[in-house]
Structure formats: C-alpha cells, structure tokens
Amino acid sequence: MKIGYILNTYPSPSQSFIRREMRALERRGVAVQRFAMRPFEGDLPDPADRDEKKATEYVLARGLVALVWAVFVMGLQSPVRIYKALFLALQASRGSEAGLLKHLIYFLEAAYVARRLGELQIDRMHAHFGTNSATVAMLAAEISGKPFSFTVHGPEEFDKPAAIALPLKLQKAEFAVAISSFGRSQLCRLVDYRVWPRIKVVHCGIEPQHYDAARPMPVSRPMTMVNIGRFVEQKGQLILIEALAEVTRRGVDVKLVLVGDGPMRRPIERAIAQSGLGHRVEITGWLDEAGVRRQIDNAHALVLSSFAEGLPMVVMEAMVSARPVIATWIAGVPELVQDGRTGWMVPAGDAQSLAEAITQLATSPDDKLRRMGTTARARVMVRHNIDTEAAKLAAHFCQRPRTQPV
C-alpha cells in the first residue's frame, strides 16, 4: 500500500506525533509520500524534523503555473471530476472563515496532489487536522477518485466546525480518526448517527524503543516541575505562574521549567517578574526531542495548565518517563491521567486548585511519587504504543472502500 499524507505546514517542532505515525506505518511496510502545502519557517532543532523536511514535497513551492497546469491535465483526463471538485470547493467555502479565494487555492493545490497521486501510483490519502489539509485531501479525492481519510486533533476544530466545513468532510471521508474517545464524541455531534461507525479512535503514541528504561526520579530539591508547549492563551501558563506564586507564599520550595515559545512569552515573562519568581522559573525556548526528554528526566513531574487540548503528547512523554502529571480536567486528558494514581487532575483555569495540587506534589513522599510514576509508565505503554496504534490505522486503510454515501 502507498499512502499520500496531506499536511499543511510540516514539519514543525510541535508535530512530532505526525512523524512518529508515518514512520511507524513505514516500519509496517506501508509506503508514505509526504505532501505539505508549505514548510515551517522557524528553526527545526530536531534532526529528525530536518530529515522529514527533505523527504516532503511542498505543493506551493511548485508555483502557480504548475498548479494551473495540473488543473488542465486532470481536466483533460476527467472533466466531470474536475467540475465536481470545483463545485465541492464552492460548497465548502460557504460560511467558511477561509472564504472563496482560499478555497480556489485549495482547489489548485488539490489538482496538483491528484496529479501526483497518479504519477506516483499512490492508493489513498490521509490528512492531519480537519482544517485546510483535509480540504485539499477531500478535493483531491474528488478529482482523482481515490479515497481519503483524516485525523482530527482538537481543540481548534471543535471550536469552529462549521467555519471549516467539518461536517462536510466527515460525510465525504472514507473514515475519520479522533485521537481520544472525547474527540470522537465531538465529531459524532456533527453528523448523522449513521456516519458514527466511520469515526474511529486511534491514539497518538510514543516510540517504546526510545524509552527502554526510565531514569530514576531526582532526589534533590527543590521539587522541579516542567511545562512544555506553545506560549499561547489556551495553554494557561499565566494561570500556572499565578498558582506558583501562591505556592511560594505558603513556603513550599518549588521550581518550574517552561519549555517552548510563542506570542505569550513577553506577558509570561512580565508575570514572572511581577510575582518575584525569576529565581524559580526558567524558560528554555524550543528544544529538540532529546532536550525535552532531558528536562522531563530532570523534573519530578509534568504540569499542564491548559484550558483546551486534544490529548497532548507531552503527557505521554512524561508518563513513559515515569513522572506523575498535574493536568486539567479537559478533553481526552482524563482518559490517560488518573487522579490519585498517575497524578492530579484540577479544574481548568482554577489557580487555587492548581496551587493545591502543586503543594500536594511537593509534600508527597518520594516513594509515593515513584509509585505514581511507575503506574503512569505502565499505562501509557499499553495505551499509546505508536506501533500498536499505527497497526490500527493501517487496518482501517485496508478496509473495503465505501461505495455508497450515507
């Protein structure tokens, strides 16, 4: 089987889960051709991402002439399909935040992808995220006659399903994937119940071969927590700083390492300074996978203060490293983190509850934290082995194609 993966901006430091999935499929003998609309413009600290960039075909880099030529070529081969795809693009643009012009660009991109599917003898397509990459895959499927599927991660897709024509994509897709049962429930809300069997759950995963044994938890103090993610409102780092200030007022000795970067960096730095936490908070910027793993290994726990998520990879990476997790009761997170067994769960946006969980972490005996970490590692190894999850996805790819729409 040969599959074309349709991506928007790829690779980027926050999307290692896509790389892991594709490479796990390749280990199973599935040939994967990577198509992305554009490359990530920032730094790629991870060598694996730089390798992915070399292996990816960038559609927009081919230029307008190549895209228009693809429309002409595919139109000669199947004029009816081209007109149907153009009509579908117009349909998807109604009420869309992207508007008509962008959907016409998606149509051009789709024609190019459809042409390459034939040239490379690719059997089907799979897109990640329910946004423009899924739109391109849907239109390319209409032009080429080859099936497509896509994975929805959330939370952005759930915030604006009509604006990205998500119900239409769910109807048109051979199947759709959610990364958690919560995610699947949100997709089921958007379509007729007869479509529900085509909405699958396939988790993102970790590569167990890279985690042969967890490093022992540090015995030194202060108690160190790590937070990993983009510095944006929905990640809640400002609430985390507020909670940390409360904890230190109680006389609890803790340290926080923030791994990441983003538009909220300056407000976060101001909050740290105003709270007098400069000696307790370190900001590292983006790190490669090895750097992230070092920060997790050097910490006693991961703390996730998000207001909205899908099912974060950093939670899996902390748990497989035998570290307990403090996280918020949102989306698919409670499906993985068990309150009192593998960490602490708190209401999102509640700085006081977050401060209480941090206090409990800091005052827990070392043997309790080690037990929680061991339980966390066993749980993620069972639920989020990327080779197991890729096998599920490959099985869905091999199902008999759907011939009748609902």
UniProtKB/TrEMBL annotation:
Residues 60-209 form the Glycosyltransferase subfamily 4-like N-terminal domain. Keywords: Membrane, Transferase, Transmembrane, Transmembrane helix. InterPro entries: Glyco_trans_4-like_N (IPR028098), Glycosyltransferase_grp1 (IPR050194). One of its GO terms (molecular function) is glycosyltransferase activity. It comes from the Bacteria. The keyword Membrane applies. The chain crosses the membrane at residues 59-76. This is Colanic acid biosynthesis glycosyltransferase WcaL. It comes from Pararhodobacter aggregans. The lineage of its organism: Bacteria, Pseudomonadati, Pseudomonadota, Alphaproteobacteria, Rhodobacterales.
